[in-house]
Specification:
single chain, alpha+beta, D-amino Acid Aminotransferase, Chain A, domain 1, D-amino Acid Aminotransferase, Chain A, domain 2, 2 domains, seven-stranded antiparallel sheet, 9 helices, globular, binds 4'-deoxy-4'-aminopyridoxal-5'-phosphate, B_amino_transI
């Protein structure tokens, strides 16, 4: 097996030897933030956007990342190069660090910055070809004035409960509603629907993470002449949509063909979804930061 190196606060440690303290508040309380990022053919997809979201999450929870954004950007690229992976999944974690056995973060003076670069666990092609069956679950999305879903924090219990409910129902993903009954997002992805040629996705204030893939899809819509509206919608709107799909770093663009036992339109991935997936797969290799610029230069010759 290939050796994998984990970046830990400026040093590289072998994957098997990379550990954090049991007194780290990330472990004790979920006190920290993270990003999941993909590398496609050496291109770290929208790295800057991921970092901006990370630094915004940090500001919101008052966690000082001990690196400038440019330095962290450089470290991510370096970690990809060090692991020699041209197609990879990156998990970037910043935890509050070691503290005492009490909530008080003022006792934590050693934030941990960790970059894991590993192989991607791809969804089977069948998922993209056939589409997903999903459900909505009783667990509601965190309300924005408790723990704002725009913060990509290490506290993912809300989403984990949703995943448990999805597993128990034997489906691959589930939707959360917000406190008012509007559709928020999946356990690990954003939702879009298509109705009469127009795309809709819930606005951030409904209670969803502002996904990097979601934004990429909105950009692709603009480029391809589709109208997208950030507008709240209900389960009923999902049931009667012409197409429904999920977006996320791991999921990319996955069609949803059945929701709560209701077949969506004809029950197969629709043309807009398929078109956007095709466009997305082209975008991901060019939009971002090249980790192996010498390869890209050689290709151009
Ligand atoms: N919502 C949640 C709750 C997520 O965990 C994710 C995955 N990061 C997304 C949406 C999709 O975001 P992105 O496209 O940035 O991966």
């Amino acid at each position: 097996m290939e050796e994998r190196w984990v970046y830990m606060n400026g040093r590289y440690v072998k994957k098997e030897e990379a550990t954090v303290s049991i007194f780290d508040h990330g472990f004790l309380y979920g006190d920290g933030i993270f990003e999941g990022i993909r590398v496609y053919d050496g291109n770290v997809f929208r790295l800057r956007d991921h970092l901006v979201r990370l630094y915004e999450s940090a500001r919101s929870i008052m966690l000082d990342i001990p690196l400038k954004i440019e330095e962290l950007e450089q470290s991510v690229v370096e970690a990809v190069r060090k692991n020699e992976l041209r197609d990879a999944y990156i998990r970037l974690v910043v935890s509050r660090g070691k503290g005492e056995l009490c909530l008080d973060p003022s006792k934590c003076n050693d934030p941990q910055v960790i970059i894991i670069v590993d192989q991607v666990r791809l969804f089977p092609q069948e998922t993209y070809d056939r589409g997903l069956k999903i459900i909505t679950v009783p667990t509601r999305r965190n309300v924005p004035d408790a723990l704002n879903p725009k913060i990509k924090s290490l506290n993912y219990l809300n989403n984990i409960l949703v995943k448990i409910e999805a597993n128990q129902a034997g489906v691959g993903e589930a939707l959360m509603l917000n406190g008012d009954g509007y559709v928020a997002e999946g356990s690990g992805d954003n939702i879009f629907l298509v109705k009469k040629g127009i795309l809709y996705t819930p606005p951030g204030y409904v209670g969803a993470l502002e996904g990097i893939t979601r934004q990429a899809i909105m950009d692709l819509c603009e480029r391809n002449g589709y109208t997208v509206k950030e507008q709240p919608f209900t389960r009923h709107d999902v049931y009667v949509a012409d197409e429904v799909f999920l977006t996320g770093t791991a999921a990319e663009v996955i069609a949803v063909v059945n929701v709560d036992g209701r077949t969506i339109a004809d029950g197969v991935p629709g043309p807009v979804t398929q078109h956007l997936l095709k466009e997305f797969r082209q975008l991901v290799t060019v939009d971002g930061t090249q980790a192996f610029p010498e390869d890209a230069a050689a290709k151009e010759k």
